Amino acid sequence: MGGMKSSSLCRGFVVAVVPLLAAHGARQQAAAPAPSAPTVVHNITMHRSPQLPEIHSDGSVTFTFTEPNVQEVKLELDAMLQPVAMVPQSGGVWSYTTVPLKPAIYSYHYIVDGYDFVDPASVDVTSNLLYHSTELLVPGSAVGLPPQPWEHTDVPHGVVAHHFYHSRVIGDDRDYFVYTPPGYDPRGKKKYPVLYLLHGYSDSAEGWTAVGRANLIFDNLLAAGKVEPMLVVMTLGYGDPKILHSKESPFDQPKVIAGNYNKYTDALLTEVMPAIGREYLVKTGANNTAIAGLSMGGAESLYTGVAHPEIFGYVVSLSAAPVEFQNPAKQLEWRAPRELLWLACGEQDPLVGAANRALDQYLKAQGVDAKFTWTQGAHTWLVWRENVVAFAPLLFRGK
């Protein structure tokens, strides 16, 4: 990932300032690479296909994969609940055409004789610590609509800064990203409210910019006058990084996941937030501070935000991973934050039932003023990008 323009040492925190378009912006589909010599992977001879997915005028997309020496090719696309078999054509070509898709950024990969492969014709590979997929932008213009909020448009753009520091709480070297809106002047006097935006399990700190396109979403919403100018701080969300290497799901190990959440909260409150206060022009107080997250980060935003109403006036949880909301050992007093408690989940998300609908019912029974939003979609970035578009305008209004 290129585009770094400068770096400096700031009170023990190294920061590399990155123009948005270069580092985290809307990457357009690159020209197809020239055919190259076949590469042998898992005993499959991969011929690098020059064909990128073809987007049709109705929004449908034809995916093409070229490999004559395999028995089966499937397409896994995050708009579909299950992988689908691609159809063999002549010359070792496999293809599949989807139903019309709405404008969005889609993640996909091919399953070739049981092995996962990113699209060899594309350079747009998602950032993730455990797996990789290819990204495909279906722009609004493809179906006669305006650009979507996550597309790069000709509006003023903010800046993303990449910070590195050593965490004494967790005992490792880690990073976080900070988005500053267009017009932010570090030498000026204007101060800004802050949103702490947390990623999900298996993502890195750059998940919200590299995959979620949060920076572009805020650029476009600001240009449209739909949100207040704010800083967005995107941290590394692992209080216990070992959960990434657990042989069983950490969410099936209550003590492990509780330790992960507790240490993350400690690091956020005692290390990251004080650094943000030193290095940036920020407004203080709960009415100027929000926390939001998806999946694992959705649970972290609830535990951290609800437990500290004196710090976070706005708490947002998206597709929250299982939350032990009825466990007395948590000693978490559920009540609405001062300004907003906003939760959302996709109707096809595996976490919609026992986790999120159960939490909704529990909060209603406790008389907690929480706003739940149910949308179409599964546990994917397709849902979470739209969630940001929905909740961001509710933050810091009139403050």
Overview of the molecule:
This protein has 399 residues and is α+β, with helices and mostly antiparallel strands. It folds into two domains: 39-138, Immunoglobulins (Immunoglobulin-like, Sandwich); 159-394, Alpha/Beta hydrolase fold, catalytic domain (Rossmann fold, 3-Layer(aba) Sandwich), CATH 3.40.50. 21% of the residues lie in helices and 27% in strands. The chain has helices spanning 20-24, 207-211, 214-223, 254-279, 296-307, 352-365, 381-391, and strands at 6-10, 13-19, 39-41, 44-46, 54-55, 61-66, 73-77, 84-85, 87-88, 93-97, 104-112, 115-117, 134-138, 159-167, 172-180, 194-198, 231-235, 289-294, 314-318, 340-346, 371-375. The strands form four sheets. The protein has a ten-stranded mixed beta sheet with strand order 1-2-14-15-17-16-18-19-20-21, sandwiched between helices. Strands 7, 8, 11, 12 and 13 form a five-stranded antiparallel beta sheet that branches. It has a four-stranded antiparallel beta sheet with strand order 5-6-10-9, with no helix packed on it. A hairpin with a 6-residue loop joins strand 7 and strand 8 (84-85). Helix 4 (254-279) packs across helix 5. The chain is globular. The model is unreliable at 1-43 (pLDDT under 50).
The H-level CATH homologous superfamily of the largest domain, spelled out, is Alpha/Beta hydrolase fold, catalytic domain
Largest sheet: 10 strands, mixed
Gap between N and C termini: 36 Å
**Which structural class fits the helix and strand makeup?**
alpha+beta
Helix content: 10-25%
Radius of gyration: 22 Å
How many strand elements?
A: 21
List low-pLDDT spans. Answer: 1-43
Shape field: globular
Oligomer: single chain
Number of domains: 2
Order of helices and strands: EEHEEEEEEEEEEEEEEHHEHEHEEHEH
CATH fold label of the largest domain: Rossmann fold
The fraction of residues in strands falls at 25-35%
Task: Indicate the mean pLDDT.
Answer: 86
* CATH level-two architecture of the largest domain: 3-Layer(aba) Sandwich
